[in-house]
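Appendix B, record 7
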Amino acid sequence: MYEEAELIEKAHQAMENAYCRYSGFMVGAALLCDDGTVYTGCNVENASYGASNCAERTAIFKAVSDGHKDFKAIAICGGKSLDDTVVCQPCGICRQVMSEFCDTSFEIVLGSYKAGKLAFTRKFLLDELLPFAFEL
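Structure tokens (predicted):
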């Protein structure tokens, strides 16, 4: 069993490493593997926007490159400031990448901070956010 608040806090901490010189919007993600390992990721922007990478995909790609392919949950946190974040849902590309490696029971946990304290959480199953995933 994992603690959602701990996973959200790891995502919140990962925001600090975001490279977001164009949007000014930091995003952090914390991916929980089935074995309990947690991989974090942040968004990395590029002047050529198509070359940018989201926090969620950064965490997933780090985990996969280390040999992990079984995931339980991901927490996501984002905003213009660490003290005041918004509920930040994964983009469509990230949802599709999640569907490549996760089953429909995979949990997506969103957290927001107000005045530096966790203020709100919301949890979805992957199937709720991507009901008709592209499959071959």
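Remarks on this record: The first strand starts at residue 26 and ends at 33. The two ends are 32 Å apart (CA to CA).
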